[in-house]
Amino acid sequence: MQAIHYLPTVNAVLNGTSAILLVAGHSFIKRGDVGAHKRTMLAALTTSALFLTSYLYYHAHIGTYRFRGPAGWRAVYLTILGSHTILAVVIVPLIFIALARAFKGRFAQHRAIARWTYPMWLYVSVTGVIVYLMLYVIFS
After folding, report:
1. Using an 8 Å Cβ cutoff, are 48 and 18 in contact?
2. Cβ–Cβ < 8 Å for 48, 125
3. C-alpha 8: how far from chain center
4. How many CB atoms lie under 10 A from the CB of residue 45?
5. Checking CA distances to 22, which of 50, 79, 126, 127 falls within 20 to 30 Å?
6. Level-2 CATH architecture, domain 2-138
7. Residue ranges per domain, the chain?
8. What is the pLDDT of residue 80?
9. What is the pLDDT of residue 65?
10. CA angle, 113 as apex, 109 and 119 as ends, to 5°?
11. pLDDT tens track of the chain, all 140 residues?
12. Burial of 95 (0-12, 13-18, 19+ CB in 10 A)
């Protein structure tokens, strides 16, 4: 059971990796490298799925980990956490819609939804790392 305590760090690494992959995938498509874009975005999806699995496993076994920072930072933390959580729920169907449209070759529709999905997914990945830092590193 001791190894489970490393999962928040693993989760932060997975979130950070997902963010890097998202930026790389966006860069590839902007340069017209569709193959690299596809591979990188599928890697970002896989990394995010691994994160979600690990996150759910951790919290099913450990429960809630409360913010332990100074009272003045609590509002900042809750604002980041709240926006992170809401957008994390919102992006899941958007990711699958974007993925389905790409695989069906509906690239105009894929681009239309990806314009919304990409920045939200990137925000969720980055704020996931920020939440980890605030809970387990900065204010631990």
Report:
1. yes
2. yes
3. 14
4. 19
5. 79
6. Up-down Bundle (1.20)
7. 2-138
8. 98
9. 86
10. 150
11. 577 889 999 999 999 999 999 999 999 999 999 999 999 999 999 999 999 999 999 999 998 888 999 999 999 999 999 999 999 999 999 999 999 999 999 999 999 999 999 999 999 999 999 999 999 999 98
12. buried
Q: What tokens were used for 68?
A: 């332990």
Q: Could you tell me how far CA 114 lies from the centroid of its own chain?
A: 15
Do the beta carbons of residue 124 and residue 52 sit within 8 Å?
no
Give the tokens for residue 104. Answer: 């069906």
Residue whose tokens read 């690494």: 13
Token reading at 40: 């990188």
Which residue is listed with tokens 């939200």? 120
Amino acid at 63: G
Q: Provide the residue type at 48 as one letter.
A: S
The type of residue at 112 is A
Which amino acid belongs to residue 47? T
